[in-house]
Amino acid sequence: MKEKIALIGAGGKMGFRLSSNLKKSDYRVAHVEVSDAGRQRLKDELDVDCVSMDAAIDGAQVVILAVPDTLIGKLSHEIAPKLPAGTMVMTLDAAAPFAGHLPERPDLTYFVAHPCHPLIFNDESDPQARRDFFGGAYAKQSITSALMQGPESAFDLGEDVAKTIYQPILRSYRLSVDQMALLEPGLSETICATLLYVMREAMDETVKRGVPKEAARDFLLGHMNILSAVIFNEIPGAFSDACNKAIEFGKPRLMRDDWKGVFEREEIAESIRRIT
Fold it and tell me: From start to end of 3-94, where are the E strands?
């Protein structure tokens, strides 16, 4: 019989996805959800009954905290005194562990697992997989994992749980917590989400200046597709002289010279402090 997992926040936005995938596995799962709506959804859609926190963590080898970053510190400190040595506490984001919000319990195993989400460039042929932008349902996605503390032997269990909750899996990467923090919030949110938001604002600006909305959207998304394919070496190719000249003059117009400073550890820490 496989290990028992206590899934805290089982009926939330992320927790429900995990509940769905764990139901397909051989793990024994105890579900905890505080909201009436979340408990009802688990019952109606997955035929899952929730239990109390104490009942869930009793005998659990793995405790997954599928709750917002702002609650990780409070919740982990509440349950830590009730967990026996060797229990694995898993978070789904590096922010709270990086910020030092987990309790000082050297005898507990701390594991972090986070999805990459399905790639823009993929070989999915199933229509549902093509529209599974988030992952964890139909489309393959890669995952990142970190064994923050605990015996080396614990990594295999943590990775197997991660592969289960985020399935179907493309690739699995082992990183450190610091490396995961560079990727998020650094690369994915501070850089990628911000620049994509600016691109959306730029598209809206062309609409304000008279370009039909549908034409502007098709033009931008189409160019994002081919430009990304070339920049990320998905296909062989090179930009035109005109495009290279536009980049040469456009980048200093849009980006500060010191923009890579967002990856300095103190800036990552400050970003995580705001998040948590």
Answer: 4-8, 28-32, 62-65, 88-91
- Tell how far CA 158 is from the center of its chain: 16
Burial 251-266 (b: 16+ CB within 10 A, else e): eeeeeeeeeeebeeee
The CA angle 172-106-100, to the nearest 5 degrees, is 70
Write the pLDDT tens digit of every residue in 137-191.
999 999 999 999 999 999 999 999 999 999 999 999 999 999 999 999 999 999 9
- Residues 22-52 pLDDT 10s: 999 999 999 999 999 999 999 999 999 999 9
Q: Residue ranges per domain, the chain?
A: 4-175, 182-275
Tokens 């998304």 identify what position?
A: 221
CA 114 to chain centre: 4
Residue 247, class by beta-carbon neighbours within 10 Å (0-12 exposed, 13-18 middle, 19+ buried)?
A: exposed
Quick one: which of 120, 136, 171, 132 has its CA closest to 66? Answer: 136
Residue 129 tokens read as 């997989």
- Give the pairing type, strands 141-149 and 109-115: antiparallel
CB proximity list for 262: less than 8 A, separation 6 or greater: 186, 190, 191, 268, 271
Classify domain 4-175 at the CATH class level.
alpha beta
Angle formed by the axes of helices 213-231 and 194-208, nearest 10°:
140
